[in-house]
């Protein structure tokens, strides 16, 4: 069974960088089929796609966050990571990592078939 | 304000059939596939429907998806108390050039 687990600081100071890691078990981030994604959910709100990354490093980011986001993959540790810089209180959210499967035809949003449990990150001084 | 529009709430009694709509545009639903997620209280979202109408292994056939033009719909038949939670639609948007979610629909089983 595929499992994902987010890890990282639960509290980040405003203007600093949020860094999270997702450890994958039951699958390999080197998979030729899947992308690896980050999604966040503001308290009591809906879901926001942050972006996804392939094992080669090819990535797609949400345009609204693109200037502040960097994703990376560490195949030796079977992990992938998120860095979000210049954070503000508006970045306080539960951050989920997930596996992104294939979708049919053209530009499509890959379905997220396995999710981590999520980790709450609070931006506050 | 979400790019994809869902009703904020829906409800039904056990055994009933409930439908949740997701309205978009030619930049998203009108040109690509729709995915649906279920989020039960205090848990991570779960993939319910992909490619408009496909169910992943393990999802009961009580859940079905459809798409017509720039709108999509999730139907739940034989409603059960454990279906109570939030439901989100999602798709790729060619104007935003990224993934977008609906605002979510809170389903209450009366």
Q: How confident overall, as mean pLDDT of chain A?
A: 94
Q: Estimate what percentage of residues of chain A fall within beta strands.
A: over 45%
- The multimeric state of the shown protein is heterodimer
What is the radius of gyration of chain A? 14 Å
Principal-axes shape call of chain A: globular
**Major sheet attributes of chain A:** 7 strands, mixed
The main pleated sheet of chain B reads as: 6 strands, mixed
Order of helices and strands of chain B: EEEEEEEEE
- β content of chain B, as a range? 35-45%
Distance between the termini of chain A: 39 Å
- Alpha plus pi helix count of chain B: 0
C-alpha Rg of chain B (nearest Å): 13 Å
Quick description:
The complex is a heterodimer of chains A (125) and B (110). Chain A is mainly β and 125 residues long. Chain A has no helices and 11 strands.
Q: Can you describe this structure?
A:
- The complex is a heterodimer of chains A (125) and B (110).
- In chain A, the strands form two sheets. In chain A, strands 2, 4, 5, 6, 9, 10 and 11 form a seven-stranded mixed beta sheet that branches.
- Chain A contains no helices and eleven strands.
- In chain A, a hairpin with a 5-residue loop joins strand 4 (35-41) and strand 5.
- Chain A is mostly beta strands and 125 residues long.
- Chain B is mainly β.
């Amino acid at each position: 069974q595929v499992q994902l687990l987010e890890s990282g600081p639960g509290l980040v100071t405003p203007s600093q960088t949020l860094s999270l890691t997702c450890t994958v078990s039951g699958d390999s981030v080197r998979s030729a089929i899947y992308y690896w994604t980050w999604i966040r959910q503001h308290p009591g709100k809906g879901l926001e796609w942050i972006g996804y990354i392939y094992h080669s490093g090819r990535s797609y980011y949400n345009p609204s966050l693109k200037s502040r986001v960097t994703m990376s993959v560490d195949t030796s540790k079977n992990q992938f990571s998120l860095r979000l810089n210049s954070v503000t209180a508006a970045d306080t959210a539960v951050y989920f990592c997930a596996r992104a499967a294939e979708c049919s035809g053209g530009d499509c949003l890959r379905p997220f078939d396995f999710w981590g449990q999520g980790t709450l990150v609070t931006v506050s001084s | 304000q979400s790019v994809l529009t869902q009703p904020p709430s829906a409800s039904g009694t056990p055994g009933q059939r409930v439908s949740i709509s997701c309205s978009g545009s030619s930049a998203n639903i009108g040109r690509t596939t729709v995915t649906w997620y279920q989020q039960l209280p205090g848990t991570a979202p779960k993939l319910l429907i992909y490619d408009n109408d496909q169910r992943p292994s393990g999802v009961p056939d009580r859940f079905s998806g459809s798409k017509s033009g720039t709108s999509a719909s999730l139907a739940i038949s034989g409603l059960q108390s454990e279906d109570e939670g939030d439901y989100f639609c999602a798709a790729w948007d060619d104007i935003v050039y990224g993934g977008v979610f609906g605002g979510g629909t809170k389903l209450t089983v009366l």
